[in-house]
């Protein structure tokens, strides 16, 4: 059990307590605070528990420490299991509806006695929800919209959830000496932002006995996170893991591994034109291999790696992230695929929060976290004053933070640099939340929408275009405001936004937090074609959040970005000059 898993369990307890009308608000807050505190604890959780070092941690009282120890030692918390058993299933399902909190859920359940989401949808259509005191037609319509959103995204899981599940089992399987090669496949390997299930492919020696496959499958199906087995054989086994996601493991001979991995990585859309190309070259391709057809007979084309498959088809290697039939095959045939950005290209962080606003760590602690990860700079971007809910900075706070930044920069000169940034709210009329004389003091400004999501598409677009036109705007943050599997985000003309940003020389970020991954990778490709620079912003509110850059790199790669397209790959000197030139050019227009 890692910190994120246990914190998630504590958050779930808080949620379930909120669904109990008689629950103490103080108890609920205690679990919420404990979850936040746990994520911020430094060090390996298992070791901290074993050495009894959690005592004295702010936010973790004796009861919370017992809960954490129980989770680490047993893989579960009995109190959480009790709450799950006591809570009507429909209440948990209603928690997934955007904008519907515990109070509304309890009111609907107590007054209308619904037992399923289908029944909830019907009582909304029958106009019964609107008649509950404190609800009304507008709330009823939002619930119907939320139900439609859930239907659209049913049985999907965020990338980070699926990745964590896959990594746990992949790491365990990798210890087996019988396995020669092992890879995650499917949409997870292609770095899709949400996935339906997990595919994994393992190989054994071509001459391995059947017992080797049986051992691997028995090991796989008895992993601690497996909650049910839906199929078990020596070539394929299927399970469901604790998060509810289904996982398939295929075991093949090592000579078949490249073709099986390629086949189950997909996508179907990529494979259709690839197979057509193979047919035109007198070949056929499937999960068993690439075959040359001669006089009605199939002859296996030896391929030790996926690269060999593409080479035999006279194509440059196509990275898994690009296999979506968006022009990658033609580009590979013409040697025009970009050299995709890598995690190792990242030199610094842009978009992180501290205790000055709603971050969990101090400025110095965030700097130390960056240094530990090998970064050479940090663009700090606490919230502006309009974001009062997030402890937005007043102008006085800004100057106080600048003074601390100057002090730390002087201490770390030549080793690390903090850029003075701000995540500045875009107000309803498109103006930025600070006057020009304050904005001029920042090295860069991320302009983001955090309010008035329900404006018309025309108004929202006009609002964003005005923010882009502000010469102090360096980067547009999370441009659509979407929350994956949570809300669709506000509606605006992103084509017009990208065009305006390209014209003004403004960047649009990929918000790398796994709940956002916004800009969408399809839009990233459009932005690249327009010449935009696309920074990766982890939106880190704790030291661990710095690692979310990993998710942003996946989306950047899906959007065909090379290292030079991503300002985080620049040296601090080049980046500072980039932002300075960007601003001066626009102020002189």
Automatic annotation (TrEMBL):
NCBIfam families linked: PRK08609.1
EC number: 2.7.7.7, 4.2.99.18
Any one Pfam family match given in the protein's UniProt record, by short name: HHH_8
CDD domains assigned: NT_POLXc, PHP_PolX
Domain DNA-directed DNA polymerase X residues, every copy: 1-324
Lineage: Bacteria, Bacillati, Chloroflexota, Ktedonobacteria, Ktedonobacterales
Any one GO MF annotation of this record: exonuclease activity
Role summary: Repair polymerase that plays a key role in base-excision repair. During this process, the damaged base is excised by specific DNA glycosylases, the DNA backbone is nicked at the abasic site by an apurinic/apyrimidic (AP) endonuclease, and POLB removes 5'-deoxyribose-phosphate from the preincised AP site acting as a 5'-deoxyribose-phosphate lyase (5'-dRP lyase); through its DNA polymerase activity, it adds one nucleotide to the 3' end of the arising single-nucleotide gap.
The protein, known as: DNA polymerase beta
InterPro entries membership: DNA-dir_DNA_pol_X, DNA_pol_lamdba_lyase_dom_sf, DNA_Pol_thumb_sf, DNA_pol_X_beta-like, HHH_MUS81, Hlx-hairpin-Hlx_DNA-bd_motif, NT_sf, PHP_dom
Domain of life the protein comes from: Bacteria
Cofactor(s) listed: Mg(2+)
UniProt keyword annotations, A-Z: DNA damage, DNA repair, DNA replication, DNA synthesis, DNA-directed DNA polymerase, Exonuclease, Hydrolase, Methylation, Nuclease, Nucleotidyltransferase, Sodium, Transferase, Ubl conjugation
SUPFAM superfamilies in the record: DNA polymerase beta, N-terminal domain-like, Nucleotidyltransferase, PHP domain-like, RuvA domain 2-like
UniProt main location, coarse: cytoplasm
Domain spans labelled Helix-hairpin-helix DNA-binding motif class: 52-71, 92-111, 127-146
Polymerase/histidinol phosphatase N-terminal domain span: 348-428
